[in-house]
Amino acid sequence: MALLANRFSSALRTTGRSYPALSKLPAAGQRSFSASSRWQLHTKEMNDEILASLKVNQSRLMEDIHYTCQWGMGKKWGARSTETGMSRLALSDADKEARDWFMRTTEALGCNTTVDAMGNIFAVRPGIRSDKPPTFVGSHLDTQPTGGRYDGILGVTAGVELLKVLADNWVETEYPVGVVNWTNEEGARFPLSMVSSGVWAGSIPLETAHNLREIHPGTATMASELARIGYLGKTPASYESMPMGAHFELHIEQGPLLEMANKKVGIVQGVQAYKWFTITVKGRDTHTGTTDLKSRADALLTASKMILHSHRLATTNSALASTGILNLKPGSTNTVPGEVTFSLDIRAPKDSTVQRMAAQIKSDFPKIAAGQDVMNCNENCITGLPCEVSITEDFDSPATTFHPDCIAAVHQAAHSALGSNSHNLIMDMVSGAGHDSVYTSKRCPTSMIFVPCREGISHNPAEFCKDEDCALGAQVLLQSVLRFDRMRDERRVTWKQEPYTL
Amino acid sequence: MALLANRFSSALRTTGRSYPALSKLPAAGQRSFSASSRWQLHTKEMNDEILASLKVNQSRLMEDIHYTCQWGMGKKWGARSTETGMSRLALSDADKEARDWFMRTTEALGCNTTVDAMGNIFAVRPGIRSDKPPTFVGSHLDTQPTGGRYDGILGVTAGVELLKVLADNWVETEYPVGVVNWTNEEGARFPLSMVSSGVWAGSIPLETAHNLREIHPGTATMASELARIGYLGKTPASYESMPMGAHFELHIEQGPLLEMANKKVGIVQGVQAYKWFTITVKGRDTHTGTTDLKSRADALLTASKMILHSHRLATTNSALASTGILNLKPGSTNTVPGEVTFSLDIRAPKDSTVQRMAAQIKSDFPKIAAGQDVMNCNENCITGLPCEVSITEDFDSPATTFHPDCIAAVHQAAHSALGSNSHNLIMDMVSGAGHDSVYTSKRCPTSMIFVPCREGISHNPAEFCKDEDCALGAQVLLQSVLRFDRMRDERRVTWKQEPYTL
């Protein structure tokens, strides 16, 4: 504050308004104020230079990241205490600890917290126009079973750091600013990704979400676990009960493109389209030693051809195809498997590409099961007895295009944060992964900020983002929110809470 | 007995010898004998006609099969009460019940029972030369987790039926006749097939076998389960403690060859060679949406290529290759698997073929893991990052050749049982599956009898062998044992208890 007061005295003003929420702020050692009169720095009175001087505290951010990673610590990959992965499944005891920290910390920073019926936690710091929907930043604190310390966690802790910077500098925003922790984004424990932002957006029925059963051991549901850890809130999980003025999400890229191109910030234009399928191949259990190749209906050999074929289709379509789960029955070395079930995840930037691939799969897999030669999959093979295949589409996420105003705010923020060489360090890109921002974008202006992670590795204990890249991302996030706040005021735009077309 | 006394009076004789074991026989309603003097029919005094007139009782055999299948009943596949599969894992409570039945029944038929340190149960009916090793028939009462009612069970119950026929007809054999139930033949619960005949033969150390850990849930060992169900016998599990004069095994073919060729009896010349491997492919867990195909080390795509390649090698080598188990990590729809482990079972009639295939696999799999194109596996694929592969040979079973004298006895028995058209109904064949006879053949003359099973299906609840085929097999088994008993006497051959070369 002392620094700001010196450098930007023109921006300082006395205000007689009372901010009950801000009065909860812990007394910063070097400052004291009377109860009735405070120095407040208003976003709409800041020029670009003042805005840019508001900076996140890198070491404090990293401390928050690693401090919260004590809950659900995973596999060690390096010598340092912070070099472990994470295994913080949604609504586990570890997740509860992280949530409690988030509630405690944001409340201490002057936020009002709300927990909705999906356990989503909204921490809102008041602004001048507190009747308007807050500008939110958000991500998730849950992880994959063998995840890392950055996926989701960076976005939430950067939001907390943003609140700390605003508090430290007594910044008063025109609109409220919120940080949201979305529940079960990963879909790793309860098998539906981004389910809670999906309910908020009205895209997934609450009942469907509440009834989701955990994958292992399969007894608890989302509703029972929300109740168990005390996060089954009374507020309806809905964009109507908790409207958002915007949603910004900082995230590691989870891919290698930024690193390979030597870029620092990805300005995310949207999210690629994807579909998830469950494929079941039924053949016949038979003895491996006594059944000649012609007399087999080998469900695993057939599934192997399908997995290879899906990769070939992805190659020819410039798309992605992946199988992450495969189970077979009965599971004995000397029994040819009679049943194989596997997941198939196909993605491409354009909806039309995903639709074309889905059609090819629906056409080709039954042919492969029947023993036909598709793209030479039967070369040097003996055709056995036919298998049956069933294909179920579990999830369809059309391509998402983010909001131009949010993208513009992130652009400005990135240039501000990166300085003179910024043009060489910024990359416009499309997200390969789904994020909660996919659902928020249906109900409010949304965009995302990517920072590079080592070798593009994610969903892996060794997932790693450099401290300076975490801080840079948080800085861009902070600047985006402040610039968007100013933009909202300048334009007096009220974005509709209905799905909009760009 | 009345029938026999009329038709073959020349074969009947009075004996003053006392057979304590036979005195345990339940009094057959229509017969009574003084304690000191009995009619006994001696095998060496029977001509071919008399021998052939000794017949198994088909309905009694089927009753034993289905009665014992009450313990460990599996999946229903048909409308009748007997149309279910079996799930009787070795040393389970259900297996204990079946074992108790076997002990009870064979003892009631005048046998002395011995349980060895592997829980193998030897039921021996005395003969005239009770100082000599018995002629055994044997198989196993354990099943696959999704097995059927005939694999193993037919061989043991046919042995019991054989004892009943001998008892009913007061047949006295020259050499003792035994029935053996081998423990954990399937290797489905404790992952080593034919482990207990292997210990008996001196091929597998007792300690290795005792320490085998069950696959699910993985806490019990063979030793702990043997003790728990009361079948940890004091007799050493060894061919030295329990020598065998011969070992005959009746089994369903578990393949389609007999049925396809319209044959009724397979005279098994030996068992094909096989090797079991565990293959581990290590790649890298990465996000399915954000990792382009070039940047992936996809362990499952690589494993799929290997499984397909092993099938192609089997095709070109006229051999078999099968994968029955596959596990992957971490197992999430949107994570490319970083680790896949799968089993590989390769088989061929000749050792040299199996060795050639093993060498090709050891040479080709690392190339496939490294991203090289082997037999066009990379056609239309994008080469990703290299994976690592490790190949462990778990089990090696060289080709087995059965004993010509045993094979000759089975030939005679089959011709006798099948009558005038026998030449059209018999097939010399090699077993595709391993059996306990592989190990017994290392220590005593051995051969096997196959009967057809429907569509060759085995290791499947719907495994099915017609009643008349079960009975025909049991009849050939009975005749083989009796003919071999006569052969032993005629030749006064004492087969060595050491491994022999044919």
UniProtKB/TrEMBL annotation, chains A, B:
Gene Ontology terms for molecular function: hydrolase activity, acting on carbon-nitrogen (but not peptide) bonds, in linear amidines
Record has Ligase as a keyword: no
Protein's UniProt keywords contain Hydrolase: yes
Pfam families from the UniProt entry: M20_dimer (PF07687), Peptidase_M20 (PF01546)
UniProt cross-references to Gene3D superfamilies, sorted A to Z: 3.30.70.360, Zn peptidases
Similarity-based family: Belongs to the peptidase M20A family.
Name of the featured protein: N-carbamoyl-L-amino acid hydrolase
Lineage, opening ranks: Eukaryota, Fungi, Dikarya, Ascomycota, Pezizomycotina
